[in-house]
Amino acid sequence: MRSSDFPILKQQVHGKRLVYFDNAATSQKPQCVIDAISEAYSTWNANIHRGTHHLSQVATAKHEEARSILAQMIGAQSSKEILFTRGTTEGLNMLAFCFGEAFIHEGDEIIVSAMEHHSNIVPWQMLCERKKAVLRVIPLREDLSLDIEAYKGLLNERTKLVSVAHVSNVLGIINPIEEIIRLAHEKNIPVCIDGAQSAPHLKVDVQALDCDFFVCSAHKMYAPTGIGLLYGKQQWLEQLPPYQGGGEMIDHVRWSGTTYNVLPYRFEAGTPDYVGSYAWGVAAQYMQDCGIDAIATHEQELAAYTEQQLGQIEGIHIYAAGQKKAGAISFNAYDASGKLVHPFDLGALLDQQGVAVRIGHHCAEPLMDELKVPGTVRVSFGMYNDKEEIDLFISALRRAIQMLS
Ligand code: PMP
Hints:
Blueprint: E1 12-13, E2 16-17, E3 19-20, H1 31-44, H2 54-74, E4 82-85, H3 88-103, E5 109-113, H4 122-131, E6 134-138, H5 148-154, E7 159-165, H6 177-185, E8 191-194, H7 206-209, E9 213-217, E10 228-232, H8 234-237, E11 250-254, E12 257-260, H9 274-290, H10 292-310, E13 316-318, E14 328-334, E15 340-341, H11 343-352, E16 355-356, E17 358-360, H12 365-371, E18 376-380, H13 387-404
The protein binds 4'-deoxy-4'-aminopyridoxal-5'-phosphate (PMP).
């Protein structure tokens, strides 16, 4: 798929063809997105919303058009339900704060899963500490999938919110979020989906999923860094207090008190990243032109092929092998005596051969504790990767293991 649209991929690293397999951390950007940023600053940059002059009106229109494109992309009912954030992390912190202020009291419970990214753990821990609430964790089965029976047992009248990843950033597993949402809704409990690793790889339809909140980051979706979104059903967002105070989020400010703006602006204090939103809209259209289902199929084929090739190397352990995955695969290598080959050493030797992978705990330390390893090697794909690159990665990995054994 169109790797020629991504200028950064044309370079060599350490004299070798660059194989970029760190897409779960961030994706590369196509030329049209790079051009969009340059176009914004070259032709229409001006602060948005309050300007009467031409450039400000153009900038405002571009920003709001991007909001509509993204609303349509994730299947929101209205663009009012799209709140721009700095990324998934800020979206989750925002939700933990606003939802926490409105709805969480002493003794209430919030459910996350054992495979969450720190961004979907720590904001809830902080909220629980603030409100004397309790964080419950959906455990994993032997095969590392979520234990849905145990989840059913966790849902009770004290549960106020469930927040789980759509796709694990470590294991690549696609979680059964339809079932997770249905089971929570049977008890009138709202659900937040961390879509950081699903929105870049799968067609997301928040109305079909019926999730109450959804967060994602632009930079993992072929768009610039520094912007993301928090989707919320309008009836929920209407009930939440503002997050930050400042310009844009107000209706009127008087010494006697302040009234707040309507959705979505009530949650968007200060000058937003309107160049980022515009470029994200361009990236979203690029993804749609490529076909999101086609991207998903392509990446799932790459994942299946990688697992098959990795499976032929002695001493490789693939986590959650054989399960349906989007975008990412984690593994470790063990030497003939069964000792873990340190992922850091493998990562360094792969880098020397031009292959960019991520090693470490992937911001999921509780999951590493569960796997009883300090870290894993993670390969993660984007639409521009291909089988030839997997072959290069596999030979580089064989060489690295040989050198370390
Ligand atoms: N959740 C998941 C599942 C992620 O993979 C990531 C990024 N690695 C985040 C949250 C945080 O995203 P960001 O750093 O863009 O805020």
